[in-house]
Structures are given as C-alpha cells and as structure tokens.
What does this fold into?
Amino acid sequence: MSVFHFFKKLFRKRWRRWRRAIWSCAIVLIAGVVIWSGQNIKDQMKKLLTATSDETPLAVETMHYLKIEDDKQEERIEDQREFMQKLNTSKGKKHVHVRITYVCGTEEQDLGRLTADGIYELMNKNPLWQGRLDDKGEVWLEQTISDLSPACKRQAYISVDSKGNLTLFDGPPEEEKVMRTFFQLDVGSMESSLPKDVIKQLEDGIRIQDIEEYNSVLSTFSDYARDMAENVMKPSP
It folds into this structure.
C-alpha cells in the first residue's frame, strides 16, 4: 500500500466527521426558511434542537459557533476603527510593514515610510488587511490565510522529533529546523496499527505540498496522540 493511497483512504474515512458540520449548516438554513415562511417557530425549532439524543443538539452547536464568529468580526471591526482613528490623529509618515500569517509559515515585507493617505490606499486595495500600531508607532498591515505559505509548499515536512513529537520541519527532518510541534505520539500504538511503510515514511519525513495533505496527515496521526490514546485505554468507572 503506497503512503499516498493510505492517507487518501484515511482522509475519506473522516468524511463521516464532516457530515455533522454539513448537517449543522443544513439545519440552520432550514430554520431560516421556517422563520421566513411564518410557520410555528417554537414547535419547529424544538424538533431541530432534539434531532440527536446523545449529543449536543446540532442547531444549538452551530448557532453557538456562528455567535462566536459574529463576536470576532465585531471585535475586528472595532480594532480597525480604533487603528484608523489613531492614524488620522498622527502626523508625518509612518514606517509600514506587511505580515501575512499562514497555517504554516509567515511572510513579512517592509514597505518603508508612508503617509496616512498612502496607507489608506494600500488598505483599500487589500480590504482583508487588518491594521495596527505597535509600541514604536510603526504600522503593521496583517492578514491570516488558511493555507500553507509558498515556502512551506516548497520544503515543509512532517516527521517525528527525538522526543516522539509529531513535528513540522522546514526542510528534511535531519536538518532539525523545527517550525512547529503538534503533540507527542503513542509510538507503540501507532506501530501496532499502521503499515510499516507508513511508519518508515513518517520517520523519513512526509513531504507536505498543500493544505489538504497537511490536514490529512494531522488528522491521521492525531488518532495516536499520547494523551488521547491514554484516555481511550483507561477503564470505565
């Protein structure tokens, strides 16, 4: 069995985990249609909220998530408004930096000194940038992207460090350029469950070239995180 096909198979198995999120979105849409059509909301929502008996109701769970996202968005808008107010009251040019933060990797660029008008022009062209002033009065225009940076796509590997931690490396693992440590693996459980060629590939380093591979590898080996494995092995009271 090739390593690629092994992860592809495991990634497909996790489809049943995603179905729950899809059903959550569907339930919220159904609730919106019910409200719009003027039906008996109380009775209909009761049915939605009791759709599952042994888990947190999906509609409640989804609405809670949406509420958190709304709160974050309001906070970002308020931070941006405060930044613009400070920029409006400042005088002269400001030293400006751009920072793009990825799931794996960060890119920074120094744009030199710009006027407030120049900064606003940049932000208008890049509406997802979030501005802030640091302690030195310098401007940082920042954005978070749910993807791997170009550098990570070229040279990132996931492997195991000397302490048994699943680790993201910048380059081959033997160069020991650690970018991020995820969690400690239950190596014994992993070796007894996974094919030998998969273990060997992990030890040599699994090349990560896109966000799908990154998520697939993390999802696969999270099943063997030591704290999770120990919880599973504990006898029921």
About this structure: Residues 33-42, 228-237 have pLDDT under 50 and may be disordered. The two ends are 40 Å apart (CA to CA). The first helix runs from residue 3 to 13. DSSP finds ten helices and eight strands in the chain.
